[in-house]
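Human: I hope this is not a bother. Would you mind checking the protein record under this note? Thank you for your patience.
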Amino acid sequence: MITDYRKQHIWAVAELMKKSALENGKTEQEANELYTLGLLHDIGYEFAEPKDYFFHNQIGGGILKEQGYKYWQEIYWHGVANSPYKSEFLDVLNWADMHIDSEGNYVSFDGRLEEISQRYNVPIDQLDSKPIVDELKARGFN
């Protein structure tokens, strides 16, 4: 189920992706594609049971693949450290997703990790998201 807080996160991710695209010389069409990708990135929560929320990316990506959505792999692989699938749009999605907290606020990478750590009561160094942030930082994303 997509909660009101998740909706705020989704909308803010989409807005950040479009803003970043336009600021970095992408075409209006590319900016709109990134915005749409941001809107769809957590769609898997709507179709997952709470026990399967960890797999929301695979669930959402699979559904969108069946629908013929061009960027289904970006959704399928978002939030996966060292993903075998690579694309510029996946990088932008992971970057934006790790800068928007669960209430739709812009935060630093470290702030997002802290928020996730507190929400799930898992130390930061044990979060699945930590290697994603480390990889983005190593590649010059901030």
